[in-house]
Amino acid sequence: APGGRRRAPSRTATAAACLVLGLGLLGGAAAGSWLGDDPDAPPSTADTYAHARAAWHSVPVDDFFPRTLRGKGEGPGGADRVWTRIAVAPDSSCGGGFDPLLTKALAPVGCERLVRATYTDATSTSVTTVGILITTSGPTAMRALHQRFVTEKLDERTDLMPRPYAAEGTAAAGFGDDQRASWRIRILTDTPAVVYTVSGFADGRKVTDPQSAGEATQRGATSAPAQSGLGNDARGIADAIEAGFRRALSAVGEAAS
User: Fold this and answer.
1) Which of 81, 158, 159 is nearest to 119 (CA)?
2) What are residue 166's phi and psi, to 5 degrees?
């Protein structure tokens, strides 16, 4: 050092520590860059949403709505259920799928497309319409709508039931608004979609005490939808179609990559 002075040991140690820290930060930045370019890294939520919105229309209808659904333990008392598809509606806008109030409740996430199908149980005594609404919104709006439905229990309100798809010449020909008995609405947050079901009796009888699937499948429920298993139909078919929807989108993504 000039004048024969020596650098204080503490200053030397501080300089060395800064050097090590600087090298560590540079190394960490480089590692972050390498990890960000990893082709095997999981896709971001934005990528998943974009993929789902672009790929849904290329999925075969039998993958969206299988001809037969099997619900192990999904019936009343844990009985097995089997549902058969009897009609598929042409994909459309959301105009005919919901009553005005439910349309208003779902409006914040928009409507890209609506696809629907109707199933009947093994005895042809019940019918259930299931729908998948592809939204135009991103993750933030989907999470906000999901939270609102949970907080305000909108999925349990009888004035927010989805509408059925009554196909002529099938067991669901008489399945109108007055025949709605039970329903389920699921706002997904990891993909831009709303999955819903609505069930009723195949003989066209009017239902005066509809009940959501969540309420109708509770232990001890005694309403007509509960005792007839219509709540189980609404829940079981919704769960099966949601799971199949996720598998179908995943398969399309793997094929594209």
Assistant:
1) 81
2) -95, 105
Q: Splitting the chain (257 residues) into consecutive groups of 10 residues, what average pLDDT does each group show?
A: 46 43 39 37 68 82 94 79 95 85 96 95 95 95 98 96 95 96 97 97 95 94 93 96 90 66
Radius of gyration for the alpha carbons in the chain, expressed in angstroms and rounded: 27
Tokens at 131, concatenated: 């729908």
Q: How many residues does the chain have?
A: 257
Instruction: Indicate the residue type of 43.
Output: P
Query: What whole-number distance in Å separates Cα of residue 80 and Cα of residue 67?
Result: 17
Please, are residues 191 and 133 in contact by the beta-carbon 8 Å criterion?
Answer: no
Give dist(CA 66, CA 240) in Å, integer: 10
Report CA torsion sign: 46, 48, 51, 54: negative
